[in-house]
Amino acid sequence: MSVADIQITEELDHHGHDDHHELSFIEKYIFTTDHKTIGKQFLITGILWAIIGGGLSVIFRLQLGFPEMQLDWLKPILGKWITESGKLDAEFYLALVTMHGTIMVFFVLTAGLSGTFSNFLIPLQIGARDMASGFMNMLSYWFFFVSSVVMFVSLFLETGPAAGGWTVYPPLSALPQAIQGSGAGMTMWLISMMFFIVSTLLGGINYITTVINLRTEGLSFTRLPLTIWAFFITAIIGLLSFPVLVAAALLLVFDRSFGTSFYLSEIYIAGEALPNVGGSPILYQHLFWFLGHPEVYIVLLPALGITSEVIATNSRKPIFGYRAMIGSMLAIAFLSFIVWAHHMFVTGMNPFLGSIFMFLTLIIAVPSAVKAFNYITTLWRGNIVFTPAMLFSIGLVSFFISGGLTGLFLGNSAVDINLHDTYFVVAHFHLVMGSASFFGLLAGVYHWFPKMFGRMMDERLGYLHFWATFIGVYLVFFPLHYIGIAGFPRRYYSFTSFDAFSSFTDLNSFVSVAAIVTFGAQFIFLFNFFYSMYKGRRAPQNPWNSTTLEWTAPIEPGHGNWPGALPKVYRWSYDYSKPGAEDDFIPQNVPYSHTPESNLDFEKELAKLEGITSKPVDPKNAE
Amino acid sequence: MMNLIIIIGVLLLLGILFSVFKVTRLVGVIKGEAKSDVPANNKLNASLMIAFLVVGLAGFFYYSFGGLEDDFVQPIASEHGVITDNLFWITMAVTGFVFVLTHIFLFVFAYKYQHKKNNKAHFYPHNNKLEYIWTAVPAVVLAVLVISGWKAWVDITGPAPANSEIIEVMGYQYSWAIRYGGTDKKLGDYDYKKIDAVNSVGMDFTDKAAFDDFIPTALHVPKGRPVLLNIRARDVIHSVYSPHFRLQMNAVPGMPTRFWFVPTKSTADMRLETGKPEFNYELVCNKICGKGHYAMKYIIIVDEPKDYDQWYADQQSWLKLNDDYLSEVPEELQEMAKIAAGIENNPEKQSVGESIVSNN
To answer: Would you give the DSSP letter of residue A27?
Structure first.
């Protein structure tokens, strides 16, 4: 026992010594094990991907909104994918929607959101020096980087990138005869996703371990900020569901390259009957959506966690129903694993399964509704400060409600018959999962930018960015519901060949214009982000008067986050506007014994147990 | 040259915007905004919230109920479509109410409780009663929606009535092949290995039921009779979708699927109703299937039952039109095939065809 103690002390000393050691550029910024830098690496990579993913959507929106338009001017970028007559190639159109989906779901809203904020915030908010394993964390980013490179290169293949939709259903994705993109492009897609999953798992294990083991003294699970709860639950969902995607992808690799028949059966294509019999394309869909549906919550929960934090801070009120918020997240996490087949009501799956999954699906709406109500009640009788982060959080709640409600149509299998795979679905998930999570990401960046870079982002540009994006997103996605109800199928290159879909050309043009303007508005953010990084106003210690631990660290935390001892936690993270308290917030590291004027009854008891007798001199009063 | 001018113009514009940005920043510094806890534009943002609510809701109601709804609701032409559309509109009423209510609360609270100096927020961490209420109420409402949806689902996906017209729909890149059972009303076997350029659905002529099958160029269905579609795919997954009938079912290679429905309006009825003399029901592919996914169009014609029977009787069997394939028929069935397919002009064709079926 004593031997072990000595070793620990030695290690600590050694560690302390290391801090003064100047790290080389590569150690500091590239192959870094510091969670803050890794978080920023995820963020910057995610932003780059968001520009690419958004850019792709602008190209196909041009095609949808202005089918007659001459696109010759895109030739320098797209080359032969612009046909002789100046039109977008129909097959490349499918590649565009496929890559847009893959990039946005996985690279932007999974890695860019969860990767950024889990890495950056977990140690800072739980009072830890770093992640449980800095090395694994570094690997997590670099696997993501390799995955990104592979996916990016696949965009430039002669046969084009994967083009079978982001869900890459076989047989389409298994047979290069069916679509060019299922050749080398699909191979690279699969390789890239394998690296991506490794990255997610390495990151996820780290987040879980860190949250369980490295919480600072006094920070029990019931005192954790909801951000950490959200990241924690997200990581668990990812850990349980991503391996299933590995299985799905691996069987697909076998079918594509080694002649197996997991997903292939009785296929006649390109003048040839294939030998494969006995496989089932539906098997792939089950496996895919077993990840795919939890993935929706992997994308959404971190955004909800960030929103909880931002709304509470800027309403100057505790989040309403803290325990209900945790409970609903746990319920959502559990239910997310047993609703996957609602993506498959009309695939020919046994209708009895459809009934079961309809019941389970609509149950998941209950905890989601609770969350929405709790956000709204948190605003009630608040003292609301509209920082850009707060605006984006309110926007998120609005999208979460609008998009969540349309889920009640799609989750009802009878109604889904007519809406499945139409633009109604597109509108639904772009609001509830795409835009809501994207707003969570932006709220997080605006809120924690001062902690990341020690400087403030410009507020006015933030407001402009918010209003342009918020209005823009609604103008893009709200009209899509209507054309979805009319039955417009998704992933259509053009609607001109059908009488039923020949109306709404002007609505489609309107949506395209709105999409382009909204995309353009993101450059306001980009300018603000990079400009403020170097020229922004210096951040104060606690710019939003927040209670959580990250604001007790130095403005630009060094390696190890806190220079001296780690802060201790004495209270939950939402003591805002406590009756009797002088300020409208009490940070988590202030003991109850120092705040006798505002303690609630049970807190008075806790104060006695703290064993702190004297109240330190308040520096403000001392002046 | 034009491009150069555009680029210079854009650069100038960006330059101006940047200068405006710098100026407002400096003004902000002079005013000392940075020291305040509350952003200078707090009130403006709060007001914009209300403006957004009012304009947004007005736009939503105008667009949804201002007379434009006829454009986005396709007229219903099937029995179950009436039921599912009912469910749709009930769900719309419930969600529409919640949508409007929650958004009023969200934006009105945001406006009303904007930061005011010397104001303190109300410390209100939880209220279990409220939590119970808004867990229970959505649960009950959802249960009602689910149960009504479930009943409809069970009926729609249940077994087709015994007197259904059975029609095979096969999807392939990039069109549909429709096959009818012919005189015996029985679809013959198929085998994907028998597919070739002519025999596009892979009819297996060792099966007697295949002799009189016919493959027309449009999907005819009788008005008012149940129709069962036997659905399959030849290469990749497709989806049989027709919004007017509110019908959709994937076509999966290697896994036959089905969907049954009762058409309620003939093509002529619908032309009258929509006022479009050119109107036709369309069969659409709704599962990404490759380059031509957006162009897998097939015409569905709903006939009056009488016209349908007439049309049905007039069709010539596929085997008759492609009599090379008689060679695939086993020796002992040759004669029967010729009669069933109508190749040999047998006056008793009808009755012989029937007896073949009953002898099975």
So the answer is: I
